[in-house]
Each structure stands twice: as structure tokens, then as C-alpha cells.
Amino acid sequence: MKYLLTAAIIAAAFAFSSFNHKEINDGKWIWLFDGKTTNGWHSWKDTKAGAAWKVEDGTLHLDPSIKDGRGDLVSNNEYDNFDLKLKWKISPGGNSGVIFYVKDDPSKYEDTYNTGLEMQVLDNDKHPDGKIPKHRAGNLYDLVAGPDVVKPVGEWNQVEIISNNGSLKLYLNGTNVVTTTLWDDNWRKMVAGSKFKQWPDFGTFKSGHIALQDHGNDVWFKDIMIKKL
């Protein structure tokens, strides 16, 4: 019985993360989600995580059936140069996103996407955005398109976002889907040609918070970790 219990604990630990634990323990990577609580996060326009963000089996689950405590989930800390890793899965027809460089000032900005850039989370097959270039899973939303390497609905997708001194690279399931440069003349031109042109501070901040988007659909996140560069 003792052997079986030990084996179960080991199996659960590996299930919690398939990332390289030696990497995590090198002192550079930081877990942003401990798998048990919403410590380190708060809902947009609030000081704590709302009830709609539930911790279940080592995942963060946005449950839109819960009407109280809705809104994007925002990291308490902000980051400038970083390497962010996480996994997500979406519900059928669902939409969400990973937003970064968010300026956490609800008195000035109505939504996280008024300032932050979004890596799209989407069911490409059933959501209408799946038919729009630059709106598909893995894209830098409404700015840069990339190859379609998303996994079927219900399966976990692995994300890596590396932003370092203006160089931005997005990876989905091990494939580099977006490479671009932030804050130069070409970047400003791209923003001016996008839906974000209505918000003058969009994509201008060189440090900010990480946000997990509440787009009104069930979505799950896990294995969220970051390394400062």
C-alpha cells in the first residue's frame, strides 16, 4: 500500500507539469500558478480572483456559468523582459487569450486589451474568428498571423512567449508561429492598421502584467511559469 501511495504521488507530480523540472528548480523560473490556489492573481477591477476562476485538478478553469467574479485574471506582478510558458485548452466554440504588457489601471483603461498584446486562444473550427486571418489560435491577435498548429478542442496546447528588448516570439506546440519586433516604426504602423488604433496606449508599455482572458467561454490553463530575462 505504501508503494502504491508513493507511486500515485509521483504520477500526480508528473501530471501537474510536463515541463523540465530541472529547469524549474534552477532558481530562474517562477511558478505563477501553484496548482492549488489563485494566489498571485486578481480579477480585473478587483483586488482578488473572482469566483468564476476555479482551481480544479491543478488547473485554472474559467466557469462562465458563475456570474459573480467575472473578468480577466491578472497577475499581481508585472514583467518587462520575460519567457512565459503555460498550457491551455478551450471548450467547443470557445475564445480566450493570453494578454501581456497589461497596464493594470482600471481607472484609466476599461479592459486589459486597451494596453496589452494578446496571443489568441481559440477553437479555430467552430468559432467565427477561426475564419479571420490574424484571429486564429496562436496569432498575435489582429496584428500577426501564423501557421495553424493548434490541437483539437479538449486537448492541451503548449505556449511559450519570449519578449526580450523588443524582440517578440510566440510558440504554439513547439512551433515558432509569430516573430516580430515591438515598439519600432513598423510596429506602430501595424497597430495603426489594426482594431487597436482606437487606444493610443495600446502596445506602448515595455513592462506590464500577464492576463488570462475571460471571453465568456469555458477555458482551462495550467503549468504557468515565467523567467525574467
Characteristic terms for this protein:
eight-stranded antiparallel sheet, five-stranded antiparallel sheet, mainly beta, 229 residues
Task: Tell me what you see in this structure.
The protein has 229 residues and is mainly beta. The protein has helices spanning 2-16, 21-24, 185-192; strands at 29-31, 41-43, 53-56, 59-62, 73-79, 82-90, 95-102, 117-122, 157-164, 167-172, 175-181, 208-212, 219-228. Strands 1, 3, 4, 6, 9, 10, 11 and 13 form an eight-stranded antiparallel beta sheet that branches. It starts with a helix and ends with a strand. It is built from three helices and 13 strands; from the N terminus they run ααβββββββββββαββ. The model is unreliable at 1-21 (pLDDT under 50). 12% of the residues lie in helices and 35% in strands.
Distance between the terminal alpha carbons, to the nearest Å? 45 Å
The proportion of residues forming helix, as a percent range, comes to 10-25%
The helix/strand series, from N terminus to C terminus, equals HHEEEEEEEEEEEHEE
Overall mean confidence score, pLDDT: 91
The major β-sheet equals:
8 strands, antiparallel
With helices defined by DSSP (H or I, 4 residues minimum), what is the helix count? Answer: 3
Total beta-strand segments: 13
List the SSEs and their pairings:
Layout: H1 2-16, H2 21-24, E1 29-31, E2 41-43, E3 53-56, E4 59-62, E5 73-79, E6 82-90, E7 95-102, E8 117-122, E9 157-164, E10 167-172, E11 175-181, H3 185-192, E12 208-212, E13 219-228
Antiparallel strand pairs: 1-13, 2-5, 3-4, 4-13, 5-12, 6-9, 6-13, 7-8, 7-12, 9-10, 10-11
